[in-house]
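seq as requested:
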Amino acid sequence: MSQYKIEAGTGQHIGDRQEQQDRAALFAAPHAPGYVMAVVADGMGGKSGGALAAEQVVRTAKQLFDEFYPGNDVRSLLENIVNEAHTVIKLSGVSSEKEPHSTFVALIITPKQEAIWAHVGDSRLYRFTGPNFTERTKDHSYVEKLVDDGKIAAEEAKTHRLSNILINVLGSSTTAPYVTFGEYNELKAHDNFLLCSDGLWHYFDDHELSAAVAANSPRQASEFLIRKARDRANSRGDNCTFAIIKLVELPTEVKSYTVQKMRRAI
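struct tokens:
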């Protein structure tokens, strides 16, 4: 039995753009108690096109999560969200004469102390252990490929002139998206997660993000991160969107009650 509770929240700022084309959401599964999902989508594709795509990602995630039951495969669920959203975004692009695209990153926490995530594009998931950075997803971008191929250093990626070019998105009319998965199976109190668009991560290093999330409640961390991102963007910031999930230690009296209840059951 888990010895933590989940605290979660989302944050969003339009930045210096004319339209908010990102979306973020948190969901509980109505038929699967203890399952929680966070999802972030960064829409692209001109006026209203990006917002249309990102909204479709979140809508599809909710629809399929509403149909999820214990015993269903989490990875299949995440892959189905990507495939269904991709298809609908393509069709909506034809009918609206736009070229909508979107990134995707989602995390599902299960009652078995599992965290399973998936992403497409350059919206990221970070995993932290307390104030320490542990891992993050690898962007599906042109500059990330250059880094992997040893053609540029990782430090050059953020400022590279082609840093906004993605090689994997939802809604492409030429190629189907591929999904990269990750998981962690020993969740405990003080494990924290951040899902975010590039409008946030572009302005921070990994350790700054881990410290900000660990030291604050999700709401306080959201306010701090948005304020700092706005300062560093210097009036040239993108949409900034993210979701924070923190696993917080249960109060001592709750733990004691849980143990006593289990003993009586035995």
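Residues 256-266 have pLDDT under 50 and may be disordered.
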